[in-house]
Amino acid sequence: MKYVLKIVVSLTILCLMILKPSNPVVFKLTNVHCGSYNKTWIRINQCRLKAINRHRTVFNFNATFLYPTKSITVHYQTFKRENGYRPWLVNTQIDGCRFLRKPYDALGILLFNIYRNFTNINHTCPLQGDMIVRNMYLTTDVMRLPLPTGDYLLAIDWIFYGKPQFATNVSFQFVEDIL
Ligand SMILES: *[C@@H]1O[C@H](CO)[C@@H](O)[C@H](O)[C@H]1NC(C)=O
Ligand SMILES: *[C@@H]1O[C@H](CO)[C@@H](O)[C@H](O)[C@H]1NC(C)=O
Ligand SMILES: *[C@@H]1O[C@H](CO)[C@@H](O)[C@H](O)[C@H]1NC(C)=O
Ligand SMILES: *[C@@H]1O[C@H](CO)[C@@H](O)[C@H](O)[C@H]1NC(C)=O
Ligand SMILES: *[C@@H]1O[C@H](CO)[C@@H](O)[C@H](O)[C@H]1NC(C)=O
To answer: DSSP strand E in the chain: where?
Structure first.
């Protein structure tokens, strides 16, 4: 009897392992919030999430840089939600124009890899005109993320010539595969 039980348990575990979906985590955008600090320079035409299904939301962003810029500082910060968003792990600045010439910051590269197929921001400075992100979604295909389960916020301030011009805040949910 004990032996049979052992086999049943083993078979069940084996079945679970086989049936385990290839992309078992929840990794999806939950909210976006953008704002221009200087509407004579940056017009935000669109900053919106759209639900495609239970597992996927897509991000659409469209902003017009009314004048060219050759100086972009990207200040990004990550937050994790625990009774409101608390600063978590990263609070750093990178030189956006240098990055577009030659990507150099490890986390910046990871973030850019998530966006690159969905954006027209794929050339060097100066940047001017419509900056587009179209139907962007999160997927674990791109990378393995060693993130604990939780709700996160990536807040980015875009600074031109030393002055903040606009912000893009994107929240997402990550649920670890617990099988
Ligand atoms: C983005 O998030 C930061 C940090 O929580 C906050 O200070 C800022 O006001 C937010 N900006 C927008 C446009 O939501
Ligand atoms: C706002 O944008 C205008 C137009 O480009 C620029 O001349 C001005 O310096 C900017 N103001 C700030 C505070 O960045
Ligand atoms: C972005 O917004 C501008 C201004 O509303 C519009 O003219 C342009 O067609 C939009 N671009 C895309 C790709 O949606
Ligand atoms: C971007 O597109 C290329 C070519 O279609 C593909 O190989 C790559 O996996 C895509 N990257 C992302 C982040 O979707
Ligand atoms: C940049 O993005 C545009 C619009 O998505 C695309 O047509 C173009 O081929 C891309 N250029 C490079 C160098 O990837």
So the answer is: 26-36, 42-53, 56-69, 72-81, 85-95, 127-136, 150-160, 163-175
